[in-house]
Every structure is written in structure tokens, then in C-alpha cells.
Amino acid sequence: MITEKETTMKTNYHTHTTRCLHAVGTDEAYVKSALKGGYQVLGFSDHTPWKYRTDYVADMRMTPDQLPGYVESLRALRDQYRGQIDIRIGLECEYFPDYLHWLKEQIKEYRLDYVILGNHFYHTDEKFPYFGHHCDTRDMLDLYEESAIEGMETGLFCCLAHPDLFMRSYPQWDHHCSLISRHICRTAARLDIPLEYNIGYVAYNEAHGLETYPCPRFWHIAAAEGCTAIVGLDAHNNADLEDSTYYDRACRELKELGIRTTDTLRMNTW
Prior knowledge:
The protein is built from nine helices and seven strands; from the N terminus they run βαβαβαβαααβααβαβ.
């Protein structure tokens, strides 16, 4: 059970690697940058592979045959830097109902510490588009809500990453945004699943005059619904871990919202 407290550790559980094909920096570079940035816990949660039943090949995630090397590399770094930083090994996974059995087998086989829910696609990316680019209608918002809630209900995921991702493509906040956000937040609060206050897109927003996520209107709803927040960098460049500007700002913003925060996610026990 998450209890209300001030965040006492600097942690990040949302770190990618080059295996996802859209990140830069070696695995060890992320660890060194995290140490430089003052982190006590660094969690790697690269985009999960999926063993598709079709011949589809995704362009934003590792392949299943890369998973052993991913785990092996991070375990070696955990041993190498033991006593300096706590390295956790996880994955960022979608809710793909037809493939969850395979995912659970991988979690058990590789004794992964945790998985976070990245609600990027409805049921599979083999045929459904990315919410971050195509969640531009009310029907797509409904699918976003459905998959986020059903994913949380599985009990498999320890947090919901960038819960306001839909604002990357939805044209303007409206009543339907408020409605689906309230449903997502109420589910997260009921299940005691933290929502990630994702700052990975803030620099891009500022450079282009955008306001996508973290979306203030979403987070006012999250605060009102009694949700818990955790700051996540969504790091795709090891340098992201060295500059504390956006991390510190996020902590201030969450405090101003009066929302509960945590620096810890539920880990699997083996």
C-alpha cells in the first residue's frame, strides 16, 4: 500500500536502451549519467518485445531474441555498480490480451523486477495505430480508455506510464477528455496503481510551443480523484539523467497540485 509521504529518493523507473531503435547511449552510459544526476534507483524499462503470431516486425521495440542480452547486460551492470546505485530490470509493455500469456512467461523466466503499462496501441500494433499520433477522435479516446483500464485491471503492471499520452494527438481538451481521464484516474486510485508524471516530452513541447503531456487538466483530475504520482523521465538519451531541471520542476508542480507522490514502485518477488 502506498502511503502519503514526501519523496525522499531520486528515482527513475522509465529508462530505454538502443534496442528500441529510437534511443541513444550505451547501457552503462545511462548508469553513469544516473550517478552524475544523483539518482539512487535506476530502473530500465525498455519497450517489450512481442512474439507476434504474424510476420509483423515493429520499428520501436526490441525483438524477442534480444531480450536475453538485455537482461544479461543489465544484471552485469547491477553487479558492477552495486553499492553505488540500485539498478532494477523491467519492461514497458502494452496491454495486448492475446499475447499476455507469452509476456508472463518471459517475466517469470527472466525474473524481471517490474513491468510498467505503456498504453501505446489498442490490443496490438500489428493492425492498430499509435495513440500518440492517431488518438484524434472520440472513438479513439474510448479505445485509449478501454485499454488503459483493462490493462490496469490485470494486476500485472506496477504503474501507468504517461497516462495523458492521448494529448499528443487529440486536437483540444474537451468534455470527453475529462470523462475518460476521470475513469482512468478512478481506476488507478481504486487499484492503488501510481500514474507516471512523464517529463520525457517537456523539452520538445517547449521547443515547439506545445502543451501535450504532462497535461495540467489531466493532473488536476488525478489529484481530485486521489491518485498517486511518480515522476518518470522516459529517458531515451543518457544525458536526460544528468540535467535535473525538468525533474525538479515536476516535483514542484506535483506538490502544488497537492497530489500524493511516491519514489517507489511495486517490485516482483522471486
